[in-house]
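TA notes, week 10

Several of you asked for a full example with nothing omitted. So below is the full record: structure tokens for the whole chain, then the designed sequence directly under it. When grading your own attempts, check the secondary structure regions first.
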């Protein structure tokens, strides 16, 4: 479970709200450029999903026209990718990586991370999940900074109540059930592979269907673990007193209180066996029987998180997953890094630079750690390329605490 004395999840969601919400009103800012040998293209597509058109952003190796200007993301971030740039097919097909954003975030919340992966020869696909609210791939946010501040004042500054004012109705209507994210990711994979088979699609022939990875932030980290094969062991429904305990927030209760989890035909039903490697970033964790579940992971795992005790997910559940998961597995903790450091959408706002440790100093160095370790991990387990593997044995970035590695 995702516990930090009942308030950890609230802190994270509130930081996300303030950071991502204010970012869309800030002036455009540049994010660290990609390091790989390929230039990067970006495109926006739509997938029909349960009565809505789900926006999906895709980054890929490209050859932009001479003088083409980088795309200005809807979050007011300037990256290096060029919109609808021609693809580079000479080295195709490329492995595909799915990126899943945090609760309320959006597919383009972590531009430096997704662009960098594409620059090393990956097709990176990121949807706006149905809970996207603070930012969107293709439109203005649903929740404005004014609404967030109003909720904060109304709650008297109490973070849990602030989050419930903003999200309580939608979370309750969904019974705190996040299994819809599994369905969305599976649909994204299906759609991307259909584009790959379509000779008329710009992405036709670009994707290797046997080399698929997943990465995600916060609730997207939970999504990554769920898709990557961490099972839900709910052999029996918890007693009503457990599900209705007034001393626990709904987010801190046994996930087996959720009907969807009780009714799974298989504990791993929400996983997707097409995914061959997973890299959750500061994952929220809502699995029952965590130690047992972690032992059933069957694909390579790397977890990257920050060390800030007040503004990051709890360390204990991450450590439980790591210690119980089979090899190959890696756990990396970044010094002076908080939950939102991976989301450069928030970086161009003065308040977040002032308030959040990850942005306050040396952001580029911390971003470099995310870039280096993600590329090394996916190169090793999706491409069989160990040319960068030395950093998995001895950290070269001063913000990296390589707690454990078992390869």
């Amino acid at each position: 479970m995702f516990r930090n004395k009942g308030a950890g999840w609230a802190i994270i969601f509130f930081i996300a709200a303030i950071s991502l919400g204010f970012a869309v009103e800030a002036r455009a800012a540049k994010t660290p450029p990609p390091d790989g040998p390929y230039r990067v293209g970006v495109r926006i597509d739509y997938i029909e999903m349960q009565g809505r058109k789900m926006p999906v952003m895709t980054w890929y190796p490209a050859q932009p026209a001479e003088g083409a200007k980088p795309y200005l993301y809807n979050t007011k971030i300037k990256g290096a990718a060029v919109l609808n740039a021609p693809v580079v097919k000479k080295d195709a097909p490329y492995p595909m990586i799915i990126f899943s954003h945090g609760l309320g975030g959006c597919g383009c919340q972590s531009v430096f991370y997704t662009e960098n992966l594409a620059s090393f020869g990956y097709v990176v696909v990121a949807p706006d999940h149905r809970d996207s609210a603070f930012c969107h791939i293709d439109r203005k946010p649903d929740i404005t900074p004014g609404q967030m501040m109003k909720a904060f004042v109304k709650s008297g500054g109490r973070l849990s109540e602030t989050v419930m004012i903003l999200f309580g109705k939608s979370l309750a209507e969904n019974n705190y059930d996040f299994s819809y994210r599994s369905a969305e990711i599976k649909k994204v994979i299906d759609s991307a592979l259909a584009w790959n088979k379509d000779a008329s699609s710009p992405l036709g022939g670009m994707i290797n269907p046997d080399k698929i990875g997943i990465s995600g932030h916060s609730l997207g980290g939970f999504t990554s673990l769920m898709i990557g094969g961490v099972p839900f062991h709910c052999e029996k429904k918890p007693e009503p007193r457990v599900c209705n305990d007034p001393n626990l927030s709904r987010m801190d209760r046994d996930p087996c209180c959720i009907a969807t989890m009780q009714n799974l035909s298989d504990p791993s039903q929400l996983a997707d066996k097409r995914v061959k490697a997973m890299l959750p970033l500061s994952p929220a964790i809502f699995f029952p029987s965590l130690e047992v579940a972690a032992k059933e992971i069957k694909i390579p795992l790397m977890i990257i998180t920050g060390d800030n005790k007040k503004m990051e997910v709890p360390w204990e559940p991450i450590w439980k997953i790591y210690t119980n998961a089979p090899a190959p597995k890696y756990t990396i903790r970044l010094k002076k890094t908080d939950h939102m450091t991976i989301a450069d959408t928030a970086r161009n706002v003065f308040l977040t630079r002032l308030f959040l440790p990850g942005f306050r100093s040396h952001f580029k160095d911390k971003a470099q750690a995310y870039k280096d370790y993600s590329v090394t991990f996916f190169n090793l387990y999706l491409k069989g390329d160990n040319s960068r593997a030395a950093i998995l044995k001895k950290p070269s970035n001063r913000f990296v605490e390589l707690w454990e590695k078992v390869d």
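Residues 1-7 have pLDDT under 50 and may be disordered. Use that as a sanity check on your answer.
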